[in-house]
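Table S5 (text form). Sequence records supplied for joint modeling of the two-component complex.
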Amino acid sequence: MAKKYVYFFGAGKAEGSSKMRNLLGGKGCDLAEMTNLKIPVPPGFTITTEVCTFYYANKKKYPRELRDQVNRALAKVEKTMGARFGDPRNPLLLSVRSGARVSMPGMMDTILNLGLNERTVQGLIERSGDARFAYDSYRRFVQMYSDVVLGVHRDLMEELITERKKEKGLKLDIELSAEDWKELVEKFKALVKKESGNDFPEDPKKQLWGAIGAVFESWDTPRAITYRQLNKIPEDWGTAVNVQTMVFGNMGGESATGVAFTRDPATGEKFFFGEFLPNAQGEDVVAGIRTPQPIGKERKADPGLLSMEEMLPKPYGELVKIYQRLEKHFKDMQDIEFTIQQGRLWMLQTRSGKRTAFAALRIAVEMVGEKLIDKRTAISRIDPDSLNQLLAPVFDPQAKAQAIAGGKFLAKGLNAGPGAACGMAVFNPERAMELAKAGKKSVLIRIETSPEDIHGMNAAEGILTSRGGMTSHAALVARGMGKPCVVGCTALNINYGSGTMEVNGRVIREGDFISIDGTTGEVIEGQLPTSSSEIIQVLIEKKIRPEDSPIYQQFVKLMSWADEIADLGVRTNADTPRDATTARLFGATGIGLCRTEHMFFEAERIAAVREMILADTPEERRRALAKILPMQKMDFIGIFRAMDGYPVIIRTLDPPLHEFLPHTDQEIEELASQMGVSFNKLKERAESLKEANPMLGHRGCRLGISHPEITEMQARAIFEAACDAAKEGVKVIPEVMIPLVGHVNELRAQREIVDRVAREVMAETGMKIRYLAGTMIELPRAAITADQIAQVAQFFSYGTNDLTQTVFGLSRDDAGKFLPFYREKGILDSDPFVSIDRPGVGEVIRIGVEKGRRANPILEVGICGEHGGDPSSVEFCHLTGLDYVSCSPYRVSIARLAAARAAIAYPRKKKR
Amino acid sequence: MAKKYVYFFGAGKAEGSSKMRNLLGGKGCDLAEMTNLKIPVPPGFTITTEVCTFYYANKKKYPRELRDQVNRALAKVEKTMGARFGDPRNPLLLSVRSGARVSMPGMMDTILNLGLNERTVQGLIERSGDARFAYDSYRRFVQMYSDVVLGVHRDLMEELITERKKEKGLKLDIELSAEDWKELVEKFKALVKKESGNDFPEDPKKQLWGAIGAVFESWDTPRAITYRQLNKIPEDWGTAVNVQTMVFGNMGGESATGVAFTRDPATGEKFFFGEFLPNAQGEDVVAGIRTPQPIGKERKADPGLLSMEEMLPKPYGELVKIYQRLEKHFKDMQDIEFTIQQGRLWMLQTRSGKRTAFAALRIAVEMVGEKLIDKRTAISRIDPDSLNQLLAPVFDPQAKAQAIAGGKFLAKGLNAGPGAACGMAVFNPERAMELAKAGKKSVLIRIETSPEDIHGMNAAEGILTSRGGMTSHAALVARGMGKPCVVGCTALNINYGSGTMEVNGRVIREGDFISIDGTTGEVIEGQLPTSSSEIIQVLIEKKIRPEDSPIYQQFVKLMSWADEIADLGVRTNADTPRDATTARLFGATGIGLCRTEHMFFEAERIAAVREMILADTPEERRRALAKILPMQKMDFIGIFRAMDGYPVIIRTLDPPLHEFLPHTDQEIEELASQMGVSFNKLKERAESLKEANPMLGHRGCRLGISHPEITEMQARAIFEAACDAAKEGVKVIPEVMIPLVGHVNELRAQREIVDRVAREVMAETGMKIRYLAGTMIELPRAAITADQIAQVAQFFSYGTNDLTQTVFGLSRDDAGKFLPFYREKGILDSDPFVSIDRPGVGEVIRIGVEKGRRANPILEVGICGEHGGDPSSVEFCHLTGLDYVSCSPYRVSIARLAAARAAIAYPRKKKR
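The corresponding structure-token record, covering 1824 residues in total, follows.
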């Protein structure tokens, strides 16, 4: 039997189905599926993707059987429609479209009205009774076909149209008459002859094969190839070709065309929502010349407009039944397109509808309630990253549009932290804190930020920088704080000295109001009204009662389902009791990373820290550390209280000490007089701490090894805090984490100190605290020798930020100078600092997990880099068998959802 | 049958042999072996290492059978000697010594004269006829035993001796009489009673068991434990105990004691060489009070001294026969100890003798000639690193000793580059070049060196720095150039401004003469005479004819044997034709790394390089590059000529561009006016190129990807040079290497450029050049994804310097601040920048080789880091199946020898 290359659909029966996506492509299988559902679909046929593969494998020849199969399918279409292809009296007209397995830009889109020629156009005039419509259709076909199939550029034909309008003193295409179009068609054809040397094909069959060939050729255009490379779509997937009967919504008063959503795509409300135009074609809706009318008579925005329900009640009734069936069948909100040709309803397309995050949440949760889908499907329907939309503060959309229309738009940067922020422009963190104390809102504007700016960032409503990328310090910290943030806005010229910023000729001064939209990257002059998201108002701000917020209840429900399904736990990266409390409200079940150094920057502490750094002997250093101890201890007590019953991983000091010292001579001068040491001594110490490559320098456990007294102090603060909190009745589960271990002996040396201090404190307090001691795995050597390290570590936590830097040999701070070239030239598909690079960094992680668990089967393994809040990375962590991910508080919900989705997509054999 | 714990030796027959090293320890098995050779060895027995293991496994108890076996062995000794242990008339006296498998400091050394007590000392007086000798022996025993076994500190007893001498107005111990010693013994015993609460044991058996116990206890001292940890000696190896009859060389005129070498340990000449003292004990030789006399009558240094050959001809004759048998048996030059007791010769020890590198070479080569050993054994006898001694320039030893005695010693630093250098102190590289042009020698003194200093380093005789370690820039470059170098000499206070250096109060000014010994790290004031090593004078300087230099001929012979045996090839890292020529003379069979950037620093080139960096557009950059092209091309032609017939790997530009720009405002000012650009532009560009972590920044292939025109120019220079050289008849084998690849797409993008330019140049010249294109593997990601990269690379070259930095997350430039703590605390056994860290970096290399070869079986794999010249790393490369190592020219011989030794130790299944 000959191989089947062509699949017919029509008259309530299709040879294909939605299960044949690989063979028929996305569009082809959806058309087949609708047909089988007895939904009226203009009949047609699909030429399979295998023909495409054959075509390229055989020097652009088709399989021998193809012509015959196409002819037979075409005959069936003719029979179904009662019209014939090329018939001058009752011509069948066709559309030809590409259709790969996945939607793919760069491929040929559509050729409409195929089959028209000098003779068949007469039939169309007759059948429609509208010569202008017929010639307009004809000229559109000739234009499209010439451009796409014959390679005559569309602009050349547009020039002819413009010329014509000029001659007749007209402005708009719609003002041209049937005669005008008729003559233009002739001119187009002459142009084709001149440009290509060939006549425009009059034979409809020749037209058809030309269009089919053009679809297959479009698989191999440079743009399509690049897209496939970037998206890892195999070359041999190929595309299908869909050939379908044309229907017309502009054949008089009983004709119409429209689009609809089965539920409200903005809110998710279960309400049939759509627009239509009577006596019009799809293109007219897009052209925006006529005002579309509502579909249903309920809830009209403009009561003056007639609805389709009122104007065309019969087709409306059919449409309602069809949309209900489609939603039930596809079990999702559908975005549908239809045409009514002379009273007869035709469905042209159905697909899952795009929707806002709010709608996605409501639809998913309500569909579970309706028993249309199960919880797992609901989870799979929500893109974890879209939760950001639910949590971010928002601008009033109308106010924003007005401001932009009023010329207040300043510049666009990278949308690094979603949400809206508005406040007075300030250029230094101290000023932001002063304003906050005075109850005033500010936006902190910096060239780039550093750890000293954190309190100012916290005090500001939002952060705006002129340098840095999506993973710059500003971006990371802002996302961690849930603050709106726009970074890398290169149009800004910031001058700290004068406290001003120049943007495209305009000058913003300190105190001027400015608004930033971290969801879009827009920077707008002036004050735009904002508010917290409703969920934040319920959850964090407690301004709305939970029972008054359906969206909050839906959110909570979805999250509880996610937790039922997920294998991975979700902890948080939190350095303060406040962050820990926030993260608990978002559902974090522990702290995966508490960075002790962030506590060091507070004004009253930094002095003692600097004293410690400047100490000449271990004894002096101990005295300075003794001043820090009670402060660190208080922090830890607060964190233990917030995390009552949940594990808390505390990392010992990590950054190089020079980060705590000032750098300019002036700052050194000031500090020296404050501390009562000589300028020279301070300067010298600052110089001696400078490093060629601080990222690879004297930091992490290397500090604790050269200065064991630091580790001692920190261990003491941890265990004294744990004992104090436990005395209050708090259930404390401390886990002490040693950073930047590369060799098991480093961990061994540091662990000895931790264990000794733990014993000492327990003996002093008479308490018994169970704790774990472990390490961060953030250097390749640690992962490669994980079998040795796991014999000394009770847990591993992958520090994927530094691990990515070392595995790639790539400094995050410097990559901005060349990574853009990498993205541009397609060398890297995605930013490895955003999503874990699976073949490289991921493989190193996998080796470490495997070796570590083999050596220590009860090893607890997690991840605490910024990747912990990235859905693709969470999936990787699930696949690699980790126990948990840890991320910033505002990404905890995202990680919980991503973990559940990963568990659904890739069920684990055994729960850990 | 009871387990055998005690092995007797004596009377020409031993129960053990040299094959039982694990059981009997080193000393025990050598004594057994000598006994079996019928060589007169004082009889005795060895208690096995298994007893030690048993002792620690069983709460410090001995095996039940031990006491009996010791008693029986002791009885055999008594029978052999005709004396009885504890016999007051004819007492047998014993020595007790430890003896592990490998010599180990921290273990108990020796207890002599065991068996003496108040009664047996009388027997010794009788037998020796010398009361003073007997009491002196007695007191020595009591002192040693009290200190080692009973824990009474030796100092307390020395105080008693000093007191006695004072009382009697004497100065030296030897002036004390028999009576004095007798009384002192009593005082010692009283002291023991007082200090330990116990009587000194009179019973010889009790003494013996005390001494045996002390040996086993000494296995577990902190010093021994630390030594084992550092040297990875397993705890359960244990130590043996050797109990042996005492013999005395001080029993009158027919007695003597001596040491000898079977060949000259300084020159290796086959000449029996030794010293003896008549009527003396071993200790007397060490004490240095009496002048030892020569053993043979030939070649006396002092003709006035009588030789043993003349004084004791019969024992001398026996000794000659014995040394010849020992050398023949052990097939190596022996270091022997003997004692003649009343005319009877006893051999106390034989072992392989320590020797200079010159002697080692001569002995090994001559022994092959004598058919005593084969070539493989000869190779195994030479420590590859010791070849440095053969190649390094030397100070006249007497002149140096005189200078030090005369107070000219200034300081000691790290011995970073072996050899002697002397010249005028200069503090900047330009001055060194000026002096060199004027025919004057200089020593370049810098705080630390940077790439701009290279020409000055080359012009100077030697390099001295106050900062940096064994792998600092100065050390690496100096070793590469074969220059003497002392680094990290922290006592120096260098002041560039005044052109002076202060050392411990003394001031050295520019132009003052200074001498550095890079073999020892010594820095000496003034001018010491030096000369090149003889091999360099033959090989490089051509000052001596090969036929006039036996040492050169031995060297060449050994190297040719090494090449026959080695599996690994040895290439060189060479950036200039001169280096390439030198490396060929040392036997390099190709270039493993030619760094193109070193060529950029030459005075006439740096201007064009800077112009290229400051270019604003690719076109400007191309214009600047066009100026560099002919210069690079000339370099490459020179290198291809020098490497005629051998492969040459040329690496495209690697360092970050800021390395080529000046840094201080003054330098920028100067350069700006030179180049005719504004100070501000230059300053701004220099600022914008600054990086937080340059090691992980915009360098390597990242430069070639952002600026493809650089790669284009370099590829063109390579292929034009190759074509030109080939036209001359040179056989060129270029291999183009792309550095710092982390992702296969980086290599793919760069390789496209290289292949395209190669095609263009070949088309232009009409030549056909076979070449390879490959990559450096110096980032963890490259090794981890080697399967992908090997599909695009024709060769891999491991850049182990950067790979070590990234795998460890360790900046070599910054590690000096904390790595010393690591060595001190035993966290790292060795410097990973010197020897490849096998469990970490080595494992990453192994993964890369395995994945790479699996994907591309004909992949050529080598290593070009500094490790290529380190013997342990060469062994690793052999084990990992690499094709070659590449190292600096002056280490090529070392690598060749190390490769041969690795092939001998670990034969490969299959030659590649």
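Note: Residues 618-642 of chain B form the longest helix (25 residues).
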